[in-house]
Amino acid sequence: MTTDVIAKLHYWHDTPTVTGRFRQCHEDFKVTEQLEVAADEPGEHQWLWVYKKGANTTFVARQLAEFAGVSEREVSYAGLKDRHAETWQWFSVQLPGQDLLDWSQLEHPEFRVERAVKQAKKLKLGYHQGNHFVLRLRDVSNVDELKKRWDKAVAEGVPNYFGEQRFGHLGQNLTKARAWLTGELSRKQTRKWSRQQFGMLLSAARSYLFNKVVSARLEAGKVTPEQGDFMILDGSRSFFQIKELDEEILRRWQEGDILLSAPMAGSWRGEWHEHLSEFEHQVLEPEADLVAGLKQQRVDLARRALLIKPTAAEFKQLDESSVELRFTLVKGSFATSLLRELMVAMASEHYN
C-alpha cells in the first residue's frame, strides 16, 4: 500500500527520467542531527552524542536505559533517525543525583557514545533545528540531467512529503491506522497496544492525508498564495489564514518569511472553513471517516510547509556515474522526498 501511495504523489519538477542507486551500504546515507548543546552544566540529565550504524533510534534508547539501570521512559531523543544509515544524534538519560557515567564502557557493534555532558533539561522531541545529510548515489544514468534537477530543487524547493518510512513496512502502519480510526478494529483488539504504537499510527494517518493534500494542490497548479489559504511563519508552527490577498502577503511569501502550508489533520472547533481552505476540504472529503477518527482521538490540527528547500547544498561528481549530495533540511523533512524529485531509485543489489 505504501509503495502505491508514494508512487502516485505528484512530482513538482516533472517525473524524473534519471535512474540511480542509493543506500547500497550504510555509508551511502549519513545523517547528522543539527543541535547546539552547551558545555557541561549542573543537572540530572546526561546528554549523549551517539553514533549508530544499522540500528534504529528506539533500539539504542533501550540499550542506554539498560546500561544506566533505568526505565526506557527515562531516555529521550529529539528525533528518529534512519536505521539503514550512519547517523549521529543526541539522547538524554535522566539520572538524578548521579555523576556522569563512564559511557565508554558501553560497547555495542551498532553504536557508540562519542560524547557525554550533564544538562539541566530533558531532551524533547523536535528540539533539534534540522538534519545534515550526505548521500552517495551510484550507477547514475545521466549525471548532467541529475545536476539540472538538483539545481532546480535547491532554487525552487521540492514537495515536503512524508517519506515511506513513516508508513511502516509495506504500509502496515497506515493500513492498521485506517482500520483503528474508522472503527474496523474493536477496543478489545487494540487493548494491548502501547502508547508509542498509538502515536505511530496517528502519525501515519496524518502524514498520508498531508501528502494527499500537497499532491492534489501541486497537480492543480496551486503553487502561489490564494485567498483562504493558510500561511505558516518560516521557522515556526504559527499560521494564519489569508482573509484578503494583498501585495504585502505576496511580498512576504516571495521573500520566504511566510510559506504555503497544508494541514496535519486533527480536531478543531467551529466550522471547517475556519481551519481548512475550500480546496483542502474538498480533497479531504473522501477521507471523512479517517478525519473523523483523528478528531475523535483529539489530535490537534496543525500546519506543515507545502515545500522545502535544502540549504548548505553541495553537488559533487565522484566519477562518471557516482555523485555525492550534501544538504541540510529542517526537522521533520525527509531526504528521500528530495531524492524522489531527482531520480528514480533502482533497487539495490548489495544492501540489506
Short description:
With 352 residues, the chain is an alpha+beta fold.
Q: What do these coordinates show?
A:
This protein has ten helices and 16 strands. With 352 residues, it is α+β, with helices and mostly antiparallel strands. The chain has three domains: 9-27 and 130-157 and 309-345, Pseudouridine synthase (2-Layer Sandwich), CATH 3.30.2350; 36-119, Pseudouridine synthase; 161-305, TruD, insertion domain (Pseudouridine synthase, 2-Layer Sandwich), CATH 3.30.2340.10. The strands form three sheets. Strands 1, 2, 3, 4, 5, 6, 7, 14, 15 and 16 form a ten-stranded mixed sheet that branches. Helix 4 crosses helix 6 and helix 6 packs across helix 8. The two termini are 21 Å apart. The model has no long low-confidence stretch (mean pLDDT 93).
Architecture of the largest domain, according to CATH? Answer: 2-Layer Sandwich
- What is the count of DSSP helices, taking H or I runs of 4+ residues? 10
Which homologous superfamily in CATH is the superfamily of the largest domain?
TruD, insertion domain
Q: Can you summarize the main beta sheet?
A: 10 strands, mixed
What are the secondary-structure elements, in order, as H or E?
HEEEHEEEEHEHHHEEHEHHEEEEHE
Q: Which range best describes the helical content: under 10%, 10-25%, 25-40%, 40-55%, 55-70% or over 70%?
A: 25-40%
Instruction: Please report the distance between the alpha carbons of the first and last residues.
Output: 21 Å
Shape: globular
Topology:
Elements (H helix, E strand, L loop, with lengths): L1 H6 L11 E4 L6 E6 L10 E9 L3 H12 L6 E3 L8 E9 L16 E9 L10 E9 L4 H14 L1 E2 L12 H10 L5 H4 L4 H25 L10 E4 L5 E3 L5 H8 L3 E7 L13 H7 L3 H9 L5 E4 L1 E2 L2 E9 L2 E9 L4 H8 L1 E2 L7
Parallel strand pairs: 1-16, 2-5
Antiparallel strand pairs: 1-7, 2-7, 3-5, 3-6, 4-5, 7-15, 8-13, 9-10, 9-11, 11-12, 14-15
Helix pairs in contact: 4-6, 6-8
